[in-house]
Amino acid sequence: MEEIIQHLTPLLQEITGYIYPNEIELHWGILVVIYPYVTGLVAGAFILASLVKVFNMKELQPTYRTALLTALAFLIVAPLPLLAHIGHPEKSFEIFLTPNKSSAMAMFGFVYAWYLMAVLLLEIWFDYRKDLILWSSKESGIKKWIHKIISLFSLDLTDQAVRFDKKAVKIITIIGIPSAFLLHGYVGFIFGSVKANPWWSSVLMPIVFLFSAIVSGVALVLLIYMFVTPLRGKEIDMACLNKLASFLFYIMIIDFSLEALDFIHRIYESEESIKILSELVSGKLFVSLVVIQLLIGMIVPLAGIAAVKIFKVPDEIKKLTYFLSALLVQVGIFTTRWNVVVGGQLFSKSFRGLTTYKMTFFGLEGLLMSIALLALPFVILYVLFYFLPPWEEAREV
């Protein structure tokens, strides 16, 4: 009993107004914040890759394979936060053994499997097949056998086979675009369909989630491209970088407009929850929502990119501005997920009180585990880059 009292004492000190006893501690914490953030990066990176194959944006060609491998690395990690959160990850296989069509959460397993197996892995395989055969023919040791296994021991390098690969990549990419929308849009659907929670219940929630996902994915690929290219001793393609920044800028404007529209709509409706939501925004979420998400994560990057687009500045200034803007965007989008997941649980169902969220350092729901889950995709991406180099010169074998 004393341990429970010691645990609840810091929470009780932060409570304002009237809160039911079962609302003191939040059910969804940092791991559930990480989950939509990571899936958003997957969807955004794939949408960026599709611009090359479907919409023929040649300027973005240097980032095509980087975007695909980035999507794969983060997709592998995407279910891990949820598996860690539920406490019994071995039970997750029951989703496939006993499908529940009425559960949006349960259907994620099928959406995830479809996107991983039928879309992303197939597109990467067809795009790399020719290179894998050529690499394995000139290599030795472990790399040779890994490339042979990944290529499924294919040896066909005829023009007909290569043309088929290119057609397959384009078809899969076209199928993958709505699949990417579904992968992350359904996350917003889950929150938006909770009618009992006025912070989540909005028809715009899936659309806002989707466009913020594209913003985060494009920003991440831009960061990776700018970080990795100098490490390899190569020059950054400014045409590619400018195009990435322009695309990021326009998507951010759309995302900002949708979030503003959602906010205006809530104010216009002025339901009985508007008072407690106003207290939430002006109090508990003021720093994370207004300062970090809106100002630092949205307005400052938009202003920075717009400034270097309007005024003639040296390329080095452009690079620094693009990099810092993309970095701030990542902070802003992660804070957006935090404000949705955690913010939606901070007010009482009675609309008369506010609680708080305390994150521990150790444990499954702790800061250390969260950092490990966010770092893991980059470790996987490093391995993917080693065995499947995405650079243009890697094709010159």
What's the layout of helices and strands?
Layout: H1 2-14, E1 16-17, H2 30-53, H3 64-77, H4 80-86, H5 94-97, H6 108-138, H7 142-150, H8 159-192, H9 205-231, H10 238-269, H11 274-282, H12 286-310, H13 315-341, E2 353-354, H14 367-387
Antiparallel strand pairs: 1-2
Helix pairs in contact: 2-3, 2-4, 2-8, 2-9, 2-13, 2-14, 3-6, 3-9, 3-14, 6-7, 6-8, 8-9, 9-10, 9-13, 10-12, 12-13
Strand content: under 5%
User: Assembly type of the shown chains?
Assistant: single chain
H-E order: HEHHHHHHHHHHHHEH
Structural class computed from helices and strand pairing:
mainly alpha
For the secondary structure, the number of strands is 2
Task: Determine Rg (CA atoms, Å).
Answer: 23 Å
The main pleated sheet reads as: 2 strands, antiparallel
Average predicted local confidence, pLDDT = 85
Q: What is the end-to-end distance? A: 68 Å
- The dominant shape is globular
Contiguous helical run count: 14
Widest sheet: strand ordering: 1-2
- Helix proportion of residues, in percent? 55-70%
Low-confidence stretches: 1-6
Please, could you describe this protein's structure?
- A two-stranded antiparallel ribbon has the order 1-2.
- It is mostly helical and 397 residues long.
- Helix content is 70%, strand content 1%.
- Helix 9 runs antiparallel to helix 10 (238-269).
- The longest helix has 34 residues, at 159-192.
- The chain has a domain at 43-193 and 361-392.
- It has 14 helices and two strands.
